[in-house]
Amino acid sequence: MELLSHTRSLSITWLDRRTLLALLLAALSGILVLTITRPPDSVPVLVAGSDIAPGTPLGELDIESRHVASADGLVKGSSVGELAAWTVSVPLAAGEPLLPSLLVPPAVASAPDSLALSLDRSHAVLGKIVPGDVVDVLVTSTPVAGGMAVTRTVATGVYVLAVENGDTGFDADRVDVLLAVDGTMASQITNARETGVIDLVRLSP
Question: Over the stretch 86-98, which tens digit does the pLDDT of each residue have?
């Protein structure tokens, strides 16, 4: 009787182990299937919801969001957000994605021309300027005999289009800056360059 009871106990224990192993294998198989069949992660990007023309703020246009596997070279986002006042430089057809190279900031839209300045590093924030920065342009007039130099603001809120710092050679202490300007601003800065020393002040974002 005792032997029969012991045999039944062993059978139940073995059955429980086999059941547990089967359940474990089934769970692992389910996890594997979910991992294989799970769709890849996607990223929201901005696309034209309809045909759009250049020069109109994005906030006034039909801009949609679509999910893609990779957002490389595209504009990420589920809405225009901070880009509401930006425009595009070329027409886009419905469904075409927005590209960073096509976006025009508000400061450039209102100042469509370009003006280059070549300044000493000490007058260009030590070269700590990058495209997208906004600067004020100041000029200090050369004092006449016995007089004092006078500094005045020539232009404010000027958008920086491009910057090139000098190499280690002859122009190592020079910084070339390309500014977005309109006709009036270009004349004022050009005149200031001929009458005094120009300094750039980088404005905080």
Answer: 898 889 999 999 9
**Averaged pLDDT of the chain:** 83
| Cα dihedral value 10, 14, 20, 24, nearest 10 | 150
Query: Where do the domains of the chain lie?
Result: 43-104, 107-202
- Reported in sequence order, the residue ranges of 15-150 that DSSP labels E, i.e. its strands, are 43-48, 63-68, 87-88, 103-104, 113-120, 134-141
Are the CB atoms for 109 and 102 separated by under 8 Å? Answer: no
Domain covering 43-104: architecture: Alpha-Beta Complex (3.90)
**How many Cβ atoms are within 10 Å of 159's Cβ, its own excluded?**
20
- DSSP annotation of 203 reads P
As a whole number of angstroms, the distance between CA 127 and CA 134 comes to 14
